Amino acid sequence: MIQKEEREENGFDLATGGDLIRPPVVVYVGLTVMVAYGLVEDDDDVEPRTGFKDDDDVESCVGVTVVVMASYVALSSPIHCKQFEFPSLISRKSRSRVNFRRTQAGVISCDYSCIEVRDVCYRPPGTQLNILNGVSFSLPEKSLGLIFGQSGSGKTTLLQLLAGLSKPTSGSIYVQKYGHDGKPNMSSEPLPPERVGIVFQFPERYFVADNVLDEVIFGWPRQSGELQLKEYLALNLQRAVNWVGLSGISLDKDPHSLSGGYKRRLALAIQLVQIPDLLILDEPLAGLDWKARADVVKLLKHLKKELTILVVSHDLKELVSLVDQSWRMDMGGVLMEEPLPV
Ligand SMILES: Nc1ncnc2c1ncn2[C@@H]1O[C@H](COP(=O)(O)OP(=O)(O)OP(=O)(O)O)[C@@H](O)[C@H]1O
């Protein structure tokens, strides 16, 4: 569940992709005082502030008071956030944050999920050499993992396996739920390719449409039978656009005319429409000027509150503040955990 304080940071609501709109507490207190004042006035006279004029209206006064206070409590509580949760294979609780959280019913819930990569090897068809050798790691939901390492060590190959673009020669990739004791509490589930969003290096080079809207919907199903999926995507479109801060940009605009940072935002929005269980970013800062890089880092800071993100990058210094776990890929496709800063 999205925590209230997390949603309110910087006044930005990540669940809805918009600004938080909540009347200040003074409005509620003022309304309550005003209505309560009506209770102690002479019931036979018309009370100008409330409009109540006889004993029967006492019940109305009490009712209105309760409603006003209840609406404040509802808007202030995590229960209000619950309605914005996303459909997902992965429960929205993170090991890296808080393991114990109260549900609506007040029951303590403490399970969490991880993307698990176990002993994965990859050898391209027709070749004799493994590019990846026994790669294993675990990425808790709603955390950001970083993989760095020498050029040619196999980082992009690993991302392609995670996105389902190639299949491991051996080993497995799956989603595992755990209980608070750290033990798996259900059988694992595969990580379907359609639940993984991937943004390759320099995604703007692959823009094909001549306006932002067409670019976003380019990969959507065209068949008439896919109506439900299209409706789901359409519902998420505005949220994705808000999420990445593209709401001020006209959907008619030519994507190629956007600034470098905004092109990256658009590439992210395209993936976010499907609300992926895993968002993979290959060198998200590459080729951007300092301002656009800072913008993308800030955006990732927001996104990691809602999504599980795996980044491959050489830009360790700029990303260090976002990283929950990091690994170094050595030549020969061997992955080792290595905390930052290195
Ligand atoms: N289909 C393939 N057949 C043969 N070799 C391949 C294939 N795909 C990748 N390789 C080789 O595997 C090695 C790892 O490539 P990969 O692109 O995964 O490295 P990388 O760590 O992402 O590098 P960079 O940081 O430069 O992007 C490279 O030497 C590459 O040439």
Automatic annotation (TrEMBL):
MF (Gene Ontology): ATP binding; ATP hydrolysis activity; ATPase-coupled transmembrane transporter activity
Record has Repressor as a keyword: no
SUPFAM superfamilies per the UniProt record, alphabetical: P-loop containing nucleoside triphosphate hydrolases (SSF52540)
The ABC transporter domain, residue ranges: 115-342
Source organism superkingdom: Eukaryota
InterPro entries: AAA+_ATPase, ABC_transporter-like_ATP-bd, ABC_transpr_CbiO/EcfA_su, ECF_ABC_transporter_ATP-bd, P-loop_NTPase
Record's protein name: ABC transporter domain-containing protein
